[in-house]
């Protein structure tokens, strides 16, 4: 039977603790893939035909849309997006499909359009300040600029600020 000294037990414990920390920290660097929205089935989408299908058949085939046009129900949209991120970073879209089904006033399918990630607008804000119009006030103007202005409009009972002197007569 082999006996272990306290130092060898402590060394093994520290080694196991270090390996555990490495495994936990490495698992934080994994890629996270998510799917948002409609699950696109190419076979079902291809089965929707203009001039043949109507609202009821599209709903039966594809299900309820992600959203409907704001004015009337002439346009249905099915939105699907796949995202990818690394641990704690911001997610980035990998692929996107927007299926746009257009109907005529009678409810028959007029067109089925597909749009992808190429239609997404990339907005890149510049600078860290939002330009505003108006006067530029310093820190001291912001802090001390209202001294003397508090209550100046409604000072006194005849000014309309107290009970009975308000604009509505109460």
What percent of the residues sit in helical stretches (DSSP H or I)?
10-25%
DSSP strand tally: 5
CATH architecture name of the domain at 30-119: 2-Layer Sandwich
CATH class term of the domain at 30-119 = Alpha Beta
Please give the largest β-sheet: 5 strands, antiparallel
Helix-strand makeup class:
alpha+beta
Mean pLDDT score, rounded?
A: 78
Return the string of H and E elements.
HEHHEEEEH
- Sheet-strand content, in percent, reads 15-25%
Name the poorly predicted regions: none
Shape field: flat
Radius of gyration based on Cα positions: 32 Å
Pfam family, one: BamE
GO molecular function, one term: protein-macromolecule adaptor activity
Domain Outer membrane protein assembly factor BamE: 37-110
GO biological process, one term: Gram-negative-bacterium-type cell outer membrane assembly
How would you describe this structure to a colleague?
Helices cover 25% and strands 24% of the residues. By secondary structure, it is α+β, with helices and mostly antiparallel strands. The protein has a domain at 30-119: Beta-lactamase Inhibitory Protein, Chain:B, domain 1 (2-Layer Sandwich). Strands 1, 2, 3, 4 and 5 form a 5-stranded antiparallel beta sheet that branches. A hairpin with a 5-residue loop joins strand 4 (92-103) and strand 5. It starts with 5 loop residues before the first helix and ends in a 26-residue tail after the last helix. The model has no long low-confidence stretch (mean pLDDT 78). This is Outer membrane protein assembly factor BamE domain-containing protein. Residues 37-110 form the Outer membrane protein assembly factor BamE domain. Pfam families: BamE.
């Amino acid at each position: 039977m082999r006996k272990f000294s306290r130092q060898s037990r402590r060394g093994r414990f520290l080694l196991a603790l270090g390996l555990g920390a490495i495994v936990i920290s490495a698992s934080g660097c994994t890629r996270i893939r998510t799917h948002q929205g409609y699950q696109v089935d190419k076979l079902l989408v291809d089965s929707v035909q203009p001039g043949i299908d109507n609202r009821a058949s599209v709903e039966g085939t594809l299900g309820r849309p992600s959203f409907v046009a704001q004015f009337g129900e002439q346009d249905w949209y099915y939105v699907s997006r796949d995202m990818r991120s690394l641990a704690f970073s911001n997610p980035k879209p990998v692929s996107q499909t927007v299926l746009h089904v257009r109907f005529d006033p009678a409810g028959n399918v007029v067109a089925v359009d597909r749009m992808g990630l190429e239609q997404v607008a990339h907005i890149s804000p510049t600078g860290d300040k939002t330009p505003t119009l108006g006067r530029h006030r310093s820190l001291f103007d912001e802090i001390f600029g209202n001294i003397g202005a508090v209550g100046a409009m409604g000072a006194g009972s005849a000014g309309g600020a107290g009970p009975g002197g308000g604009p509505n007569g109460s």
